[in-house]
What does this fold into?
Amino acid sequence: MKNFSTVMTRAAGAALVACVVAGPVQAADCAFKPNAPDQHVVVKRDTLWDISGKFLEHPWCWPQVWGMNRDEIRNPHWIYPGQIVYFDRKHGRLSLTKPGDDSGAPLQRLSPQVRSEGLEQAAIDTIPAGAIEPYLTQPLVVDKNALAGAPRIAASEESRVYLGDGDRVYVRGNLQGATDFQVFRPGGPLRDPQTRAVLAYEASYLGTVKLVKAAVPGVDVHTFIITSAKSEIGVGDRLVPTPPPSLRNYVPHAPQRQVDARVMSIYSGVTHAGQSQVVTVNRGSLDGLDVGSVLRLYHFGKTVADPERKGFMGFGRAKLKLPDEQYGNLFVFRVFDRVSYGLIMQVAAPVEVGDVAKSPE
It folds into this structure.
């Protein structure tokens, strides 16, 4: 098994190196740190963001220094513990082969079809997996029409009000052939902080249920058993099919086009957020965001009175618009049409609803 892992790791490394261009590729803003190391040995606890930050002023510049195209950003090649990332100072790029070492075998791209499941699981994550794991498979955002049409818990054993693990529930609605479902409770609307328009509805995740027996002629409901309950489940709660596992190893990168968003809400309903907490922004896939997009966080510049200039027609004081102050970064990890969820990566001050989140300049 050890030899197999070594061969596969080298193949994966060769695949990543193969996408590096011949010369310097970073944009003007994508500078290497003055004290960047010559190399870094990848260890199990590393993330792609961490490694990027060791070499680069801005972690989202990783695609430029590896010469990745858009498809490779969305479905990156893996990096594994034990590999060495080298800084090729002469060509201004990163590599998995030592600069000047031409003794290795010819590079070839690794097809996704030949990845083994065990090896794929050993690859390092883009960002700390534990911080976003619950948000990758839970509904979070639902369309108003989807809420109305989702199967619902219509009754319970012995007419109990709230239920937990192992309890039976009776569900009415079209299951669309699915057998495993997540249970959620419709929450409040997500409003755009700029226009106040309702962009989507946030759902509270309650747990999971599994089909025991589908409805038969003469019976109006399907029989389910609760397989896990994060919170108490009750009559009226809605079901959505359990989604497949999400690919989380996306490369951090700047959005494909300019994005100017606002922090719309802070998950868990608190008023301020800090490092490794989750927020929503009022932009989504329709606005150019995709998984892995990095936005810079700014406190919105206030408008204050000018102490030395009078206002219009001599009334009051003239107004001064202060600049937005940049104070952190946001890594977008789940994207809907008009709303996205992001993990706060680096902040020098608390995040508040209404703060600016926009593309790196």
About this structure: The helical segments are 2-17, 48-55, 62-66, 70-74, 117-122, 129-137, 144-149. DSSP finds seven helices and 22 strands in the chain. Residues 260-358 form a domain with the Elongation Factor Tu (Ef-tu); domain 3 fold (CATH 2.40.30). The two ends are 46 Å apart (CA to CA).
